[in-house]
Amino acid sequence: MCGIVAHCGEASAVPSLLGGLERLEYRGYDSAGIAWLHGAGHRLRVARAAGRLSALLDVLPADAADDVAVGIGHTRWATHGEPTAANAHPHRDCTGTVAVVHNGTIDNADALAERLSAAGHRIGTEVDTELIAHLIEEQLDGASPGTGDGLDRLAEAVAAAVGQLRGAWALAVTAEGVPGVVLTRHRSPLLVGTTPTALTAASDTLGLCPRTATVRELGDGDTVTLAPGRTLRWRGPGGRETEPPAPLRLSVRHHTVELDGAPDHTSKEIAEQPAVVARILDAVAGRLATGRLLGDLGIPGDRPVRLLACGSSAHAASVTARMISRLAGLPAHVVPASEHSPAGDELTVAFSQSGETADLLAAHADGGPGPWLAVTNNPHSTLARRSDGVFDLGCGPELAVAATKSFTAQVVAGAALALALAAARDRRAVAEWERVLLGIPDRLAATDAMARPVAEELAKAFAHQPGWVFISRGAGVPYAQEGALKLKELAYRWTEALPAGELKHGPIALVTAGVPVVSVTAAPADRLAVNARELAARGARIITVGGAGQDAVLPAVLPTREPPWGPLESVVALQHLAREVTVELGHDVDRPRNLAKSVTVE
Ligand code: F6R
C-alpha cells in the first residue's frame, strides 16, 4: 500500500516528486522520502521523515529544488519495521550511492538478510527494501555505476538482484553519477508516463503529473530505464530489449483537492453523494429496462455471478448479490477477495473503488475461464486494465481514507447491473424499481440535511462508549455492517454488526446498561423492533436509523416500500454518526491510524 513516484526530464524533479507524493499520500502516510541527483556530478541526496508529507518538507534542504532532473520518491505504509525516518524509503546500500524505493513485500527477506550480513553488508534496518539496495550493490561488485554506460549497468544489476527475490515488488532505483532511473516490477503495479518535458513513473495514475498525456504499464519481469531527453528503453523478462508497449491515452480528470468550505474531506465526500448517484443514474439512463447496459459493458447476462471485494466494497457487493438473485434469478455469491479460490466460468464482478487492491489482483492473476467486470472509481487502475468490462463509478477522487461516496456509488452501480440482468432475463419489476432508483439523490440529500445535526447530538451523548452494537434484518444487514466498519475505522470503537435475530445466540451477552445499539430499519421492521426491545430491556440505548424508535432516532429518508437494494439512504446517517463521534473524540477523520486508502499488499 505505499506509493512510488519517479521523474527524469528537465529540471523540475523535486516539485514533480512532491506533487506526486501528495496525490499518492492516500495510499499510506506513515513516512515519506525522496532521493535526487544533485549538481553536475549527480551526487545522490536523500531526505526522509516519519509522518505526513509535510514533515518531509520540513527536512528538505533549501537548495533541493535547484536544477534537479532525476529523482525517485515514496510514501509508506509500514509492513517491515516501524514507521520511523530511518525505515522510510528510499533505502541505500553500504556505499550510500544506490537508492531504492519499493512497493510490495519480500517473502524471503530473513534468508537474504542473513546471507548479506554474512557477506559483510551492514544492514541498518528491518525493512525488506534495504536488502534490495545491498543486492544491487553486490551485482555492481564495487564498481561505481557512474562509469561507462552506467544506466545500462545499473539496469543489469537491478535485474540480477530481483532474480533473488520472492514476493511482490515494484521498484524505482537511481544511483550516484547515473542520470536516470531503473524500474522493474513483479505482481505490484508500476506505470511509465510521458509529459511534454519528462518521463515519469508512479505506482498508480494519480501519482503521475497532471501533464501526463500517455501511460505504459510494466509487465512482470520487465526492466525499464528512463534517461534524459525522454529516452525510454524497455527490456522484457529475459533481459532482451523490446519495443515499449503501445501507450494508453490518459483521460484522468484532475479534480480539485480543495475542501471548498467543508471541515474535512470525509464531510465533503458524504455531502457529494446525491450528485455522485445522479451522475451514475444519468449515465445508465435508458439502458436498464432494455438490458443494453450489459452489451455496453461487454458481459454476458446468463451466467452465475461471483462477486469479489474487500471491506466496504464487500458490503456493497453483498447488497448487489442479493439483488441479482432476487431480481434476475441468477445464483450470486460474495467471496472476500482475500479468501478467493480458482474461478470457474461464472461472471466475476469485482468491486473496488481503487482498482489496486492486492487481494483482488491476486484473484485475477489466479486466472479462470469466466469474464471479469470491474466496478471501480479508477478506470485506469490495474484491475480495470485487466478486466473484460469496466463500470466507471465516476465519483471523482475520494481523498478521505474511509469509503463514503464510493460505497454508495457501488450500491447504485450494483442496482443498475441487477436491473439490467433482470431485464435481459425478461423479469417484469424492472421499470417499477428504476423509478424508485431515480428518487435516491433527493432522499440522500434530505437524509444528509436531517441526520447531520442529530448525529452531532448523539455523538456528544455516546462518543465515549467503548463498544457499540449494530443490528438490522434482511437487506439492511450490509448497511449495519458498513455503519459499524465506519465507526470502527474512524473512531476506534469496538463494534459488533449482525442480523438482529442472531443476537440471542450469544452476542447478547455483551449488552449491558448504556451500550449503544444502532438499529438500521429494514423489513420486516416489526420483527426488528421486537429484537430492539429485547435489548432495551437489558439496559441498551437504542438508536433507530430511519424509522420510529425508542431512545433516539437518527433520521434517514427511505422509500415507502423497501426496494431490493434495502435502506441505502441510512448509510448517510451512519457515516455522519461515525464522523461526529470521531470529531468528538478528537481523532483525525480523514487519516485514521494504521490505514491507507488503497490496500496494495496481500
Ligand atoms: C473502508 C474502506 C476499506 C475498503 C477496502 C477495499 O472505509 O475504505 O474497507 O473498502 O480496503 O478497497 P477497494 O474498494 O479500493 O478495493
TrEMBL record:
The record's annotation in PROSITE patterns points to: GATASE_TYPE_2, SIS
Keywords attached to this Swiss-Prot or TrEMBL record, sorted alphabetically, are: Aminotransferase, Glutamine amidotransferase, Repeat, Transferase
Task: Give the superkingdom in one word.
Answer: Bacteria
Cited Pfam families: GATase_6 (PF13522), SIS (PF01380)
- State the CDD domains in the record: GFAT, SIS_GlmS_GlmD_1, SIS_GlmS_GlmD_2
Keyword Transmembrane helix listed? The answer is no
Stretches assigned to the SIS domain? 294-427, 454-592
**Boundaries of every Glutamine amidotransferase type-2 domain copy:** 2-229
Name the chemical reaction catalysed here.
D-fructose 6-phosphate + L-glutamine = D-glucosamine 6-phosphate + L-glutamate
Q: Do you know which SUPFAM superfamilies this protein is assigned to?
A: N-terminal nucleophile aminohydrolases (Ntn hydrolases), SIS domain
Enzyme Commission number, as recorded: 2.6.1.16
Alphabetized NCBIfam families for the sequence: glmS, PRK00331.1
Q: What is this protein called?
A: Glutamine--fructose-6-phosphate aminotransferase [isomerizing]
Species of origin reads Pseudonocardia zijingensis
Task: Provide the taxonomic classification.
Answer: Bacteria, Bacillati, Actinomycetota, Actinomycetes, Pseudonocardiales
